[in-house]
Amino acid sequence: MDFIIFTVAMGALIYGADFIIQESERIALRFNISSFVIGATLVAFGTSLPEMAVSMSASMKGSADIAVANVIGSTIFNISLVLAAVFLIAKNIKPDRDLFAKDSAWALFPILTFILMSIDGKLNMFDGILFLLLMGAYLLFLINSNHVEEIDEELAKEKFNWGKTIGLLAIGFVFVIGGADFAIDSAGNIARNFGVSEWIIGLFLVAFGTSLPELTISIKSALNNNADLAIGNIIGSNVANFTMVLGLASIINPLNVDLSAYMFDISAAFIVSLMLVFITANKLYNKSAGIALLVILGLVIQNSLA
Q1: CATH number for position 30
Q2: Which residues, 6 or more positions from 1, have their beta carbon under 8 angstroms from its beta carbon?
């Protein structure tokens, strides 16, 4: 039964992703907002809602390992799987935005902040407030760095309708978030039958499940040759995961973080974030970069499950 639920949930994710991408482009066209900024804000926040729901719920239940592992795992999957998929699928990636000069630092700020805050072994309410302030700084940065770019000409010919756009966006997010929720539950039930730890469940199964919205939306964007939205979604989601998700979770209940016990997984999240900076610095938006990211993901999975 869990396998059937997982399959249906995946279908909901795919259909939901279609609605979100198309309506997000309409909003971008209406207000002269770049696809990257839309991807890094509206779409990124929407696709980060599953991580937020899982980590906040885990925090309330005292399951700090799941709350933290979910964010660490999602960061690893968002870059090494989702970004790799974009590079492998998109035919020609030429971002209109200088991602290295403008955005690469935001791939590192959140995880470095997390590591520094976790040195004492705990994320408390004060740390959570600082995380939320960092999220506010990111939003201000995006607003100030927005620029106008070309949007789908077919969408430009259509009359903008707020009611229709909001309605379809809502349906899309319900499908995406609901699909992710059922995918997580069904995958978790399957995993628990094998008796694995909460950290491993959070790091891989829950993190993979909560990363499914980013994966489906980014793949759809890549197929539509809208790499800016896809990459913006990945960077924005990672920022939101560390700042908003961990911030709110640690405000609800202090989270214990054992850096020494999970050093490999946390280091892996930092390394893939560093690779994202390297890729943007050298404009390596190609299949070779995608393959390299997948190799790193394979090594992480092999080491963690060994």
Answers
A1: 1.20.1420.30
A2: none
